[in-house]
């Protein structure tokens, strides 16, 4: 194999990593979340847009409000995970571009003056960052349970505003008893890759 990353790290991040459905009650600390962010913030986005925003749901009251917007099969695990994160796209990300893309500060208006253009770009690039976030959670030795089975508009109204579009909810923690479903099949290289 021609990968530089050692086998144990490959297992941690990919081969042995799974979507967790149960968690222990061991808390996820702010220091762990800071370390995750400080790693994944370096993942590339177009023009360094960095539109991902993370809303941590820690209080019992907020958790109860969130659970009401989750699909039935996701409610129990969201109610019992040590930490839940709502990942969203900031549709006003362009306001940060003069600082994030300083060699072309005009990009804010030249490319992203139109709201529809911003929303499309924010959705794509924040979804890239959401994937980095999941890998970062795994790198911290925690399990992630990303879910899109939810009432997106309900979550937006309950926790965000008109400038933020929810992408997914991620349960975070140490895996609990019977945390894993059997691994589903994956497509093989030749089924995915075409050379032209």
Biggest sheet record: 4 strands, antiparallel
The value of Rg in angstroms is 18 Å
Helix content: 40-55%
How many β strands by DSSP?
4
How would you spell out the order of helices and strands? HHEHHEHHHEHEH
Oligomer: single chain
Mean pLDDT: 96
**Overall 3D geometry?**
globular
Distance from first to last alpha carbon:
24 Å
The number of helices is: 9
Query: Structural class from helices and strands?
Result: alpha+beta
**Beta-strand proportion:** 5-15%
Low-pLDDT windows of residues: none
Strand order of the largest sheet: 1-2-4-3
Write the layout of secondary structure elements.
Elements: H1 7-15, H2 30-40, E1 52-57, H3 60-67, H4 72-80, E2 83-90, H5 97-100, H6 107-110, H7 115-139, E3 143-147, H8 152-159, E4 164-173, H9 189-192
Antiparallel strand pairs: 1-2, 2-4, 3-4
Helix pairs in contact: 1-7, 2-7, 3-4
